[in-house]
Design a protein that fits this description.
The protein is of the alpha+beta class and 402 residues long. It has 2 domains: 199 residues, no CATH class; 96 residues, Beta Barrel (Elongation Factor Tu (Ef-tu), domain 3), CATH 2.40.30. It is 21% helix and 31% strand. The protein has 6 helices and 22 strands. The strands form 6 sheets. It has a 6-stranded mixed β-sheet, with no helix packed on it. β11 and β12 form a beta hairpin. The radius of gyration is 31 Å and the shape is elongated.
Amino acid sequence: MSRTHALLHRQRGVTLIELMVSLVIGLFLTLAVYTVMGNFESRRRTNTAGSELDKAGALAMAQIDRRLRSAGSGFAQAASFAYGCALQAAKSNTQILPAKTALAAPFASVNPGASGIFRLAPVLILPGQTTPASSGQASDVLVIMASAAAWGAVPAPFTEAAATDELKKTDVLTLANTLPFSSDDLVLLNDEQPAQAGGVAPCLLTQVSKSASAGSATTSLALGGDWYAATVDKTSVTGYSDTGTATVLGNVGLGRLPEFVLVGVGDDNTLYTHDLLQTTGTPLQATAEGVFELHALYGIDTDANKTVDQWVSPSASGSGYALADLSDGSLAAAGKLQNIKAIRVGLILRTALPERDEVSAASVTLFNDLNGLTHTRALTSSERHYRYRTLESTIPLRNNIL
């Protein structure tokens, strides 16, 4: 009996209390491991999101920087009589400028100063003209224009008024020589004489015919192609007198296309561009992610020494550089457009996914070093569950400086 009792004692196993203690210890170990893994995953997600945000911001700012540094190329030498002219353009016999219908979102509410009329300028800031759904607040739009001409972009003066060649059934420009021009060139027509007292004459985009010949001994340049129309809106080729000029903006056949674009923030924290001249089949393009808002300022040269002396908000009334002051088509507006030597761009970036806890401060600030021009974006409680970055850059307008 004693041997049997001893054998049963050795095979008894653990007691209920021992089992419960083991379960509690295991539970605490599991909880500790889960907490460590959760914190690790949270930090990894935060670091990844921040890294992706930095990359997205760098990409967005690089695109804006490239465009702004080239702004005004190709037509800056005609600034005194071309800046501020109302752009007229047609493609395949359909008018595209002035725009007759609203542009695609997020630019559907864009108003460049007059209904559908965009004016020639290296850059214009349209204050608060997109409202991204993610932000719910107004964001600025940049209108940036630059040519892709291979030559020095000197405007070629007419020697005679533009006329219609009845034999060729097209309009013809007569110049001192046509050396800077090639077939399929996109050309901007301006008039040095204002169409009205104190105003800038409208400018017309047109195209050199594929069959046109050019050279130092040739003075006649025939027009034709997708971007040629005898009349656009109320502006006709033959309405340009012997004081007209022609400036090469690019070449369709060679794929050197000018960039006349809108840049602004749309839904889903996405930066978009819109091609005003419709040089591509899809004018609206998403170009960068992570951009929550865009804001910009003008850098003004007040004493003609080619340096920025003053920063001005495009929405400040009475500054002389509000949108209405720059887009009225006057010679005074043309002069002010020449005084803009730089653009200060500020981007507010935001991560795509919210976090469990509030991880951001109550506001985000741009232009903190500029007294009176600081932009503060207050964040709601729900918005503070996202992480934010700010990115600023001062970009010179080289063509206006030179």
